[in-house]
Structures are given as structure tokens and as C-alpha cells.
């Protein structure tokens, strides 16, 4: 068999040393009636070469961002992954190492995590960051729980409908069996109306969760939302797009107390949605309520500066049922990749990347909306995504035609927003060229032969 | 060769004007940013990221990497963590553009190959667990526990017993995530005592078992490496009280194809594919936490799930011959009805616990692992994992007492209490000294039920020679000068860190100058 060493002779010698007649005897503590008396019903073993062929056959059935031009967004984006991220991320000492509980044998990981936390604080403008969570949605849910715990008797969390629908669903799941309520505010203008927030917020509200730019790509009035939240004594949780911070104000700049993000865009491919990187930062007052691993600087016995996992009394392996969260693993490998990404980008690279997204999204919206069939659903300025309304109300047919022409052209919004069933969300990253955009516009505006969708 | 000259902080390498990334010029007509974005939303300057050229980035991270132990470089007898070899073919598979460059919200007809893998994984994990329904969504073992407990809560709500069933019982040697997950899911946790062999103390169990039980969470084989002697009785008693049994699947590496949780009484379980199915640990993650449940609980599982349509006219991938290019050379079949799709229409589902489908990259590696092992190979994995652990136990028991006895499953827990009493050497001293000899330390001080616990799990991917050498080293260390051990490690990049100082005066990021 492929990965273990024991020859029949080794097994014999080992069994003799143990004092057992057979390997089966080692399983004797499992009552006979509970043992499986047949082989597992699984396909027979493949060699590496056969596996390779099998996977090629399967991947040939997939369209991907290398075979169709990808304009899909909604929380996962076809950003460029620089080669340095792959090189560092595939280094065995990073990807086959364990959680750095043994600090003396893990200074590489610990220093990188410390640097990652430092990079995230600079990115967000907040005081502290943890060493990562699972993904953006669960990080948002954890942030909501933090706010509830910090808020004492406050049991309400407000999220506008402009927060990613899957993030709202995740938070709702996390709230299902505890004393907490998620209130969703409708946003017909595509952005949260601060007056509507002011009307809904009260002294039971622990937090307001604001996505900036929001799910529709629109820029929210974060300053006003923050002021309303602060005025009611609630915390502001910001869900941000790391790439956008090359241009936009940082969550800490507009008064967020906790900031979370989906960080796969920093050097990790889309990978059909995971594993991803949950980024979390907060202000100093909340650090002891933060979930997840945190690395701190200290000194060793010889006085040498070093790094270690710290404040572990928050965590499940120490505090069990009193822990701030059940989170155990982080996404260390992707925190490594994100650090490398941010290091290679630098402030100018991040700014240029953000600007390319902004300009190209604007260009696409302008080109498309020159045609009578299409208009922008919302007036608010956008960053790298835009909601397009189809006057012919045939989004499914339109997107299917575009697919045939070679484009993953956008996300139909009717699934999450029935009132936007004539709309789709288009994302434009720095990877898309003018030629891509022109060709997509041409494809979408070609006279379609297809009848309205049958779905 | 280790180079510790070049391990300054990333920020110390920064110099204004240096840079690595070069982006293409903007090829669309540019509009001034102030005309596109409201002034109140725009930052005066981009974040103060370091400015470092590419060669320096590579040298920085590569030199840091050499300060880590890893499975590819060292033996990791780390109990409860199953630090087995991570096959390289799995890495190549996950990086294939046809998987890595898929957007999570692509239409089903464009991802039939991906959905095939995920559908098969649901089937494989159900078969291995003996539990017929599977959700691949949870992002980690702890999130799998949490999702399964939400499933249990939804079930009890449905049958009108939510108010009554508030209690989750778990043994005192359970992973800390068990009680933490139970609290997050809205339950109260009750700890059940265990005996010195790691088995559940049945007297205490019956004392705490009543009509208010929701779930009994058990790790089997348990964290001491013993198959729970009263497993069937415990499951029957919990079921008789109307409760559910949850299996913490952290130790599945011991029982693949030997026994199945569904067959020994579990109603729900999670897997740790990064342990059992060789996903790399990544320095702490990512992992994944797929869960399997009984038929009765299936409708509560997270959404979406992959479903296979009834006959759709698409050729079966498995039975058709494959050209050596790995490509189907017959005309494109994708315009037929999709064979697989995601089912979101599951009104009883608990919803979702994260965005998108799941930690697909980890699941894909697990898929490759299962496909390259097959049914016999998976059983051989467990056989050799158990053989290696018993062999190492037979050597270690002459050096350190192993309170649980002479046999174990995939891991065992030795006790350093005699060594501590006689020579003043703590389990931690042993662990740290092992680092000097090029071994990652075993798990120490867990489970809490064994004094001076030293928890050893060799896994099946180590040779007899490695185990012999490890036991010899352990023997040698126990005879060393206690002073030497108190000060260990001596050869690593740093000596023992001051953890108290780190927690008391937290310095969690480098200061902005």
C-alpha cells in the first residue's frame, strides 16, 4: 500500500514484541458484533496515474475561470494570485506543520502569524487581529456573538439586506438556539438608509453589521451608520473587502469596533468556495472576547525576542464550556498566503489593484447601460461590483447565452432578492481586460434568439 | 541550511519606494477617483503595508519556514492529531485549474466534475461511518460538532421536546471543543467521569442520564486510545431515554473498515479529513468538518447538499473507457440535463454555518486519499496505525508507565508522574527535550484525567526503525540530568518562551513607527 512502510516481516516482529498473534487480535477490544464483517463499499484503489486520468476526466467537465471569462462575485472573486503566494504556500514547513503549540519548534509559523496580525491591523486601522477564522461568513457570525457578549442585556443585532445573504443566513443559524435576534432592514435604494437604521435601533441593540462595499458593490455611508450605532450604544461590525482598502477608508477610520472579511482574495484561488480565510480585527477593549488563536511577542529564557500563542484562557482547550467560542483551527496556511500577498502588493500595489477594479467596473457599467435593455439598479457609487437590471426581465436566458459565448457573466439575484429577479450582479477584477469587457457587452447586447427562461 | 540572519520582521525590511508587484496599465478610460467615489469614503493614503521587493520576500519566508518542524521533515508523535504523511498527489489534484479556479456560485451545468467529486464524497463518508446522510459544509471539526448539535436541536424542536432536552453529556476526557460547541448550540454541558482506562464511568453515567438528555458526545476510540468498553450499552441507554449519541470522529484513523459509528450506536458524527484522510495541517488549518447522520436527522442537515438526478442520459464516468489524455473524446455531453445539482430546497435544514459549499480543497484531497486506497487500503491504514501504536506502547511501557494497560488502538497515553516524583522531571521537560533530538513533542497534559499525560500517536506512515529510534531516545532522555531537561530545548531557534509575560502584557502586533 502506498504510504506505510510495514513489510510482512516488520509486522511479524512488531506483533511478537507486542505479544499478539495477529493484527486482528489488536482489534479484539471491539466487540465482534460491532465489527464490520465485509469490505467497505468503496471503489477499488487507483494508482496515482489512474487517479490523475480520472481527475482530468472530471475537470474536463468543469468550466472554470481559465476557460470562461469570469465576472462572478458575491463574496468570491477571480483576483490574480501572484506566483510568490504559491511558492511560499507550498513550502512543506508551512503546509505540513502543526498548530504552533510547541513554540520552540514553530517560530517560523508564529512569526508569520504575528506579522499577519500586524498586517491586518494596518489594513483595518484597528488595534488587534487574531490569527484568522474559517471564512468571512463565520467570522461575521463570531463578531455578532462577540458583540452580544460585550453588550450585556442587549440581544438584538441589526443587519441591512445589503449584507451578503449567506452571511445573514450564517448569523441566523448561529442565533437559532440562543437568546439573540437578527433584524434585517430592507434597503430598496441598494444602501442602508441611516434614518431607517435610527428608527430600528434601540437600547437592546448590541451591534449593527455593515458591509462596505456592500453585497451589491455599493458604497455605504459608513460615517453616518457608525454615528447612529454609536449614538445608541451599539457596536459597529464592519464586513470589508481587503482589496477595496487600497482606496477606501479603513474600518477603524469610520469607527468600526470589529472588522471581519473574506480574505481568500489575498492570494488564494476561488477553489469552489473554500477553504478560505476569515479575517477578524477589533479594538483593544474587545480583545479578550475575541475567538480564535492569537500570537503574541515575548522573550525566551535567554532574553531573546520570540513569539508564542497567547491569551489561551479564551479558548476551548483551556476553558471548555466557558470559552469565548468553540473555534479551534484557524486558516494559518492562508494567513501565510495573505501575508505574502500584502507584502508583494505593498501600499501602491494594493491601491493600483483597487483602482483597476474600480475603473473597469465603471467602464463595464457605462458600456452596458448605453443599451436601452440595461440599467444600473441603484444610484449609489460602486467599487468592483454592480447590479444590472434587464428591462426584458430574462436574466436566466441572458446569462445562459453569455455562458455559451464563453462568459460567466454574473449572478442572478432573484434567488436571494425576489424583488431583484430582473437583476444580476457583475464583478470586474483587475484581471479582466478591456477586450474581455467589450466582448461581454457585445455578447449581452446581441439580439438573443432564446426565449425567456424555463426555470 | 538554516539562516537566522534573515529573519527580522517583515516590517524591518521595508523601505519606501521598494515594491514587488507590477500591475498592468489601466486599459479602460480612467475617471478621477473623486468623481467615482464619495470623498467621505476614500482614504487619504493606502494602508501602511511594508514595501519589500520579491527576492527579499522569498528569502524572508523561506528562512522563517526553516524554523518550523513539519511532517515532511520530522516525526510528529502528536496524540489526537493524526500527523500522517500528506501525499503529494493530493496537492497536485487540488491545484488543477479545473478545481482551483471554480467560482462557488457557478451554474450546476458548468461544474459537473466538481459536483461528481462532492457527491461521491457524501457517499463515501456515509459508507465509512455507517450513517446514511452527509453534509460536507462545516469548515472544521469543531464546526462539524456545532452543526450536528444544531441538527439535534432542530430535531428535538420538531418533536416538541426542545424545552425538555437541554443537557449535553460528555466525558471528562473529551476534546475541549465538545463542551464549547454544546454551549454555543444553546445546551448545558454535564461532565461524565471516566475510569483510569479512559472508559466512561458507568455509575456516574447512569447518575447523570435522565429524560432531559439531548445528546451524549463521545470520542471513540477515546482520547486515551481505548475503544469504549461499554459503547453499545451507553448508546442503548441514551436512546432509551430519547437522547442522541454524537461521535467525535477525531480518532477515525483507528477504525476505518473495522467498525462503523452508525453500527456501534452513533446518530451523528464529524470527520477531521485533515487527520484521517491526510489533509495537511497547514500550521493550524485549514481543516474541514463534514458530518454524517441517521436517516431521521437527514432533513435537518445544513444546505445545500449535492443531489444526483435520476437518469439523465449522461454517460457514467466510471464505466466508460478513458483515453490517456483523461479526456472524454465523444461530443460534449454538457448540454444534457445536469446529472448533479445543489439542493437548496430543504425546509427543515438548520441553514448554513458558513458561506458557499464547504472546504472543498480539503475535501478534494480526502477524495484522492480514499480513491487511492480503496476499501482494502483504508483498512490497512487503520491496521498499521494500530500496529504502530501498540508496538510503540510495548517499547515505551518499559520507560514510562502506561496506566491504560498493554494494549491501545491508534494512540496511547503514558504518564510521567513517576518520573516527576522520583527525579523531578515533568512531562513538559520530556516534551521539550525531544525537540533537541529532532522529534516533535507528543501532546502533553491532555487528557487531564491522566497525571503528567504524554499522549503518543505514531500514525501508520512511520517505519519500525523510526519508532525504535524514538523509543531509544525517550529512554536516553529519562536518564539525563534533570537540570538539562528543565532547561530544554537547547538546540532550537529559541529556548522556552515566557508565556506569562506574553499573556500579561499582550503585544499582538508590531508597533507602527
UniProtKB/TrEMBL annotation, chain A:
Its EC number is 1.4.4.2. Coiled coil: none annotated. Residues 7-443 form the Glycine cleavage system P-protein N-terminal domain. It comes from the Bacteria. Transmembrane segments: none annotated. GO terms for molecular function: glycine dehydrogenase (decarboxylating) activity. It holds the Pfam family GDC-P. The glycine cleavage system catalyzes the degradation of glycine. The P protein binds the alpha-amino group of glycine through its pyridoxal phosphate cofactor; CO(2) is released and the remaining methylamine moiety is then transferred to the lipoamide cofactor of the H protein. The glycine cleavage system is composed of four proteins: P, T, L and H. In this organism, the P 'protein' is a heterodimer of two subunits. NCBIfam families: PRK00451.1. This is Probable glycine dehydrogenase (decarboxylating) subunit 1.
TrEMBL record, chain B:
Its EC number is 1.4.4.2. Its cofactor is pyridoxal 5'-phosphate. Residues 308-318 have a biased composition (Basic and acidic residues). Keywords: Oxidoreductase, Pyridoxal phosphate. It is an enzyme of class 1 (oxidoreductase). GO terms for molecular function: glycine binding; glycine dehydrogenase (decarboxylating) activity; pyridoxal phosphate binding. Residues 104-306 form the Glycine cleavage system P-protein N-terminal domain. It comes from the Bacteria. One of its GO terms (biological process) is glycine decarboxylation via glycine cleavage system. The keyword Oxidoreductase applies. It catalyses: N(6)-[(R)-lipoyl]-L-lysyl-[glycine-cleavage complex H protein] + glycine + H(+) = N(6)-[(R)-S(8)-aminomethyldihydrolipoyl]-L-lysyl-[glycine-cleavage complex H protein] + CO2. Residues 308-337 are annotated as: Disordered. The keyword Cell membrane does not apply. One of its GO terms (cellular component) is glycine cleavage complex. The glycine cleavage system catalyzes the degradation of glycine. The P protein binds the alpha-amino group of glycine through its pyridoxal phosphate cofactor; CO(2) is released and the remaining methylamine moiety is then transferred to the lipoamide cofactor of the H protein. This is glycine dehydrogenase (aminomethyl-transferring). It comes from Lacipirellula limnantheis.
Amino acid at each position: 500500500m502506498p504510504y506505510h512502510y510495514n513489510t510482512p516481516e516488520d509486522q511479524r516482529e512488531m506483533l511478537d514484541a507486542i505479544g499478539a498473534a495477529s493484527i486482528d487480535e489488536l482489534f479484539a477490544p471491539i466487540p465482534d458484533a460491532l465489527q464490520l464483517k465485509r469490505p467497505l463499499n468503496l471503489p477499488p484503489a487507483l494508482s496515482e496515474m489512474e487517479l490523475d486520468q480520472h481527475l482530468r476526466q472530471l475537470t474536463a467537465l468543469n468550466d472554470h475561470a481559465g476557460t470562461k471569462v469570469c465576472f462572478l462575485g458575491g463574496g468570491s472573486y477571480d483576483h490574480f494570485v501572484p506566483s510568490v503566494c504559491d511558492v511560499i504556500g507550498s513550502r512543506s514547513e508551512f503546509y505540513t506543520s502543526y498548530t504552533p503549540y510547541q513554540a520552540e519548534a514553530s517560530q517560523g509559523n508564529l512569526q508569520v502569524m504575528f506579522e499577519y496580525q500586524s498586517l491586518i491591523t494596518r489594513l483595518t486601522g484597528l488595534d488587534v487581529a487574531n490569527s484568522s477564522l474559517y471564512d468571512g461568513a463565520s467570522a461575521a457570525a463570531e463578531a455578532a456573538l462577540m458583540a452580544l457578549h460585550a453588550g450585556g442585556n442587549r440581544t438584538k443585532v441589526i443587519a441591512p439586506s445589503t449584507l451578503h445573504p449567506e452571511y445573514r443566513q450564517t448569523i441566523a443559524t448561529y442565533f437559532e438556539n440562543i437568546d439573540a435576534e437578527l433584524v434585517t432592514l430592507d434597503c430598496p435604494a441598494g444602501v442602508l438608509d441611516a434614518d431607517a437604521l435610527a428608527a430600528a435601533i434601540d437600547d437592546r441593540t448590541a451591534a449593527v453589521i455593515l458591509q462596505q462595499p456592500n453585497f451589491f458593490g455599493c458604497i455605504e455611508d459608513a460615517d453616518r451608520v457608525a454615528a447612529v450605532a454609536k449614538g445608541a450604544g451599539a457596536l459597529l461590525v464592519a464586513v470589508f473587502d481587503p482589496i477595496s482598502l487600497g482606496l477606501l477608508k479603513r474600518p477603524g477610520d469610520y469607527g468600526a469596533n470589529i472588522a471581519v472579511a473574506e480574505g481568500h482574495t489575498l492570494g488564494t484561488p476561488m477553489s469552489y468556495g473554500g477553504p478560505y480565510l476569515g479575517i477578524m480585527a477589533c479594538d483593544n477593549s474587545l480583545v479578550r472576547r475575541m475567538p480564535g488563536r492569537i500570537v503574541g511577542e515575548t522573550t525566551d529564557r535567554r532574553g531573546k525576542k520570540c513569539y508564542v500563542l497567547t491569551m489561551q484562557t479564551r479558548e476551548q482547550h483551556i476553558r471548555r464550556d466557558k470559552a469565548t467560542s468553540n473555534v479551534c483551527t484557524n486558516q494559518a496556511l492562508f494567513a501565510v498566503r495573505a501575508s505574502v500577498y500584502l507584502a508583494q502588493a505593498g501600499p501602491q500595489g494594493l491601491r493600483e489593484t483597487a483602482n483597476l477594479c474600480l475603473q473597469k467596473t465603471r467602464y463595464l457599467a457605462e458600456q452596458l447601460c448605453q443599451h436601452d435593455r440595461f440599467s444600473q439598479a441603484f444610484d449609489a457609487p460602486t467599487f468592483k461590483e454592480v447590479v444590472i437590471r434587464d428591462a426584458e426581465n430574462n436574466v436566466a436566458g441572458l446569462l445562459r447565452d453569455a455562458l455559451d459565448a464563453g462568459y460567466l457573466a454574473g449572478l442572478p439575484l432573484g434567488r436571494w432578492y425576489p424583488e431583484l429577479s430582473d437583476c444580476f450582479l457583475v464583478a470586474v477584477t483587475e484581471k479582466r481586460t478591456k477586450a474581455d469587457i467589450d466582448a461581454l457587452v457585445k455578447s449581452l447586447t446581441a439580439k438573443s434568439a432564446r426565449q425567456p427562461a424555463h426555470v | 541550511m538554516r539562516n537566522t540572519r534573515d529573519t527580522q520582521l517583515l516590517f524591518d525590511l521595508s523601505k519606501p519606494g521598494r515594491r514587488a508587484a507590477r500591475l498592468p496599465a489601466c486599459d479602460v478610460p480612467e475617471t478621477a477617483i473623486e468623481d467615482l467615489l464619495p470623498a467621505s469614503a476614500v482614504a487619504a493614503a493606502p494602508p501602511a503595508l511594508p514595501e519589500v521587493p520579491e527576492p527579499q520576500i522569498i528569502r524572508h519566508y523561506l528562512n522563517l519556514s526553516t524554523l518550523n518542524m513539519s511532517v515532511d521533515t520530522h516525526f510528529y508523535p502528536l496524540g489526537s492529531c493524526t500527523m500522517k504523511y500528506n501525499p503529494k498527489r493530493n496537492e497536485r489534484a487540488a491545484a488543477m485549474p479545473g478545481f482551483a479556479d471554480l467560482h462557488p456560485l457557478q451554474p450546476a451545468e458548468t461544474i459537473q466534475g466538481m459536483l461528481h467529486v462532492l457527491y461521491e464524497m457524501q457517499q463515501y463518508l456515509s459508507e465509512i461511518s455507517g450513517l446514511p446522510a452527509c453534509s460536507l459544509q462545516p469548515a472544521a471539526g469543531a464546526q462539524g460538532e456545532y452543526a450536528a448539535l444544531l441538527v439535534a436541536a432542530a430535531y428535538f424542536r420538531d418533536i416538541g421536546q426542545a424545552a425538555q432536552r437541554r443537557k449535553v453529556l460528555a466525558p471528562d476526557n473529551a476534546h475541549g471543543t465538545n463542551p464549547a460547541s454544546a454551549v454555543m448550540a444553546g445546551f448545558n454541558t454535564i461532565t461524565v467521569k471516566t475510569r483510569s482506562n479512559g472508559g466512561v464511568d458507568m455509575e456516574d453515567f447512569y447518575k447523570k442520564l435522565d429524560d432531559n438528555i439531548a445528546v451524549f458526545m463521545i470520542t471513540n476510540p477515546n482520547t486515551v486510545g481505548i475503544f469504549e468498553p461499554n459503547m453499545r450499552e451507553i448508546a442503548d441507554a441514551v436512546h432509551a431515554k430519547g437522547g442522541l449519541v454524537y461521535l467525535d470522529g477525531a480518532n477515525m484513523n483507528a477504525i476505518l473498515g473495522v467498525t462503523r459509528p452508525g453500527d456501534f450506536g452513533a446518530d451523528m458524527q464529524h470527520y477531521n479529513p485533515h487527520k484521517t484522510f491526510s489533509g495537511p495541517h497547514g500550521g493550524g488549518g485549514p481543516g474541514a468538518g463534514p458530518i454524517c447522520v441517521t436517516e431521521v436527522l437527514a432533513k435537518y442537515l445544513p444546505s445545500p447538499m449535492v443531489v444526483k438526478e435520476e437518469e439523465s442520459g449522461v454517460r457514467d464516468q466510471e464505466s466508460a473507457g478513458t483515453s490517456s489524455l483523461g479526456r472524454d473524446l465523444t461530443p460534449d455531453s454538457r448540454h444534457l440535463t445536469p446529472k448533479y445539482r445543489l439542493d437548496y430546497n430543504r425546509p427543515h435544514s438548520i441553514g448554513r454555518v458558513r458561506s458557499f459549499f464547504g472546504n472543498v480543497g480539503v475535501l478534494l484531497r480526502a477524495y484522492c486519499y480514499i480513491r487511492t486506497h480503496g476499501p482494502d487500503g483504508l483498512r490497512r491504514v487503520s491496521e498499521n496505525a494500530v500496529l504502530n501504536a501498540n508496538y510503540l506502547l510495548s517499547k515505551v511501557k518499559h520507560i514510562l508507565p502506561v496506566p491504560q494497560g498493554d494494549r491501545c488502538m491508534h494512540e496511547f497515553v503514558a504518564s510521567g508522574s513517576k518520573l516527576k516524583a522520583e527525579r523531578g522531571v515533568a512531562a513538559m521537560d520530556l516534551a521539550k527535550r525531544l525537540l533537541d533530538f529532532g522529534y516533535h513533542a507528543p501532546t502533553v497534559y491532555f487528557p487531564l484525567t491522566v497525571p503528567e499525560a504524554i499522549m503518543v500517536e505514531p500514525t501508520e506512515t512511520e517505519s519500525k526503525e523510526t519508532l525504535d529510534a524514538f523509543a531509544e531516545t525517550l529512554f536516553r532522555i529519562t536518564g539525563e540530568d534533570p537540570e538539562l531537561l528543565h532547561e530544554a530545548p537547547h538546540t532550537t531557534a529559541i529556548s522556552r518562551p515566557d508565556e506569562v509575560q506574553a499573556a500579561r502584557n499582550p503585544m499582538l502586533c508590531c508597533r507602527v513607527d
